[in-house]
Each structure stands twice: as C-alpha cells, then as structure tokens.
Amino acid sequence: QVQLVESGGGLVQAGGSLRLSCAASGRSLSSYIMGWFRQAPGKEREFVAAINWIGGSTYYADSVKGRFTISRDNAKNTVYLQMNSLKPEDTAVYYCAATPAQFAITWYGRRERYDYWGQGTQVTVSS
Questions:
Q1: How much is the pLDDT for 103?
Q2: Residues with Cβ < 8 Å from 55, sequence gap 6 or more?
Q3: Maximum CA extent, the chain
Q4: Percent of the chain topping pLDDT 90
C-alpha cells in the first residue's frame, strides 16, 4: 500500500505561484508513475501533469503546459508541482495519484490508470 499526502495549497492572486508537494509512504516510488489531477466545483476530475519515476519523462495537460512543472525527489520520496502564472481557472482541489504500472505516455492522463490517491489540497486563485 502507498499513502499519499498533499500539501502546499492555499490562496494566491492571479499571476502568482504555488508549489504543491506529494509525500509518499509505505513503499518506494522508484518504479511508479505519479500524477497530479484537479477537480473544480461541479466539474469532473481532470489531468494536470504526470512523471515517470523511471527515466523522469513528463506529460502535461495543454492548459498548464509552460506554466506548471512536475518534478520528483528520490531521497524524499516526494513529487512536486510547481505552478507559476496562476489563473482563476486553476482554482480546484489538487490530487496526487500513483500507480506501479508502466504504460505508454499517452495514457498518463487517464485517471482510471492510477491505483492510489491522496486526499487533495485546495488551490484558490483570486482575480
């Protein structure tokens, strides 16, 4: 079992930055694919970014490409999401997800591919 705990959310003005963290326990993530998803009120949970612990390949939703960066820290068993140039439409609860499965990068955005989920952290961007 893998336990995921997100942190780093908060309230920020448009144009500002936040860094989310996802700390994992219970198992090393050294062979996992890690993803960030978000869910705004009244909307479905959507893909934001993903990283493959093996090799470090990354994948982003078009809506965040160029503004968000996903990264990992092997020693801390932690994944980060650096969010810059935030917009009000980025407001959502952000969830970290993990899977030990390996699959093509084009599948990284499919939430049904992930086995473990955190409780989420709220990000609110004011205009």
A1: 86
A2: none
A3: 40
A4: 83
How many other CB atoms sit within 10 Å of the CB of residue 30? 10
d(CA 85, CA 100): 32
The DSSP 8-state label assigned to residue 95 in this structure reads E
Span 87-107, pLDDT tens digits: 999 999 999 999 998 888 888
22-64: pLDDT as tens digits: 999 988 888 899 999 999 999 999 999 999 988 889 999 999 9
Residue type, 88: P
Instruction: For residues 119 and 95, give the distance between their C-alpha atoms in angstroms, rounded to a whole number.
Output: 7
Nearest to 111 by CA among 123, 100, 99: 99
- Rounded CA-CA distance 102/74 in Å is 18
Q: Of 45, 42, 48, which is closest to residue 22 (Cα–Cα)?
A: 48
Tell me the residue length of the chain.
127
- Sequence-distant (≥ 6) Cβ neighbours of residue 62 within 8 angstroms: none
Checking if the pLDDT of 71 tops 90, the result is yes
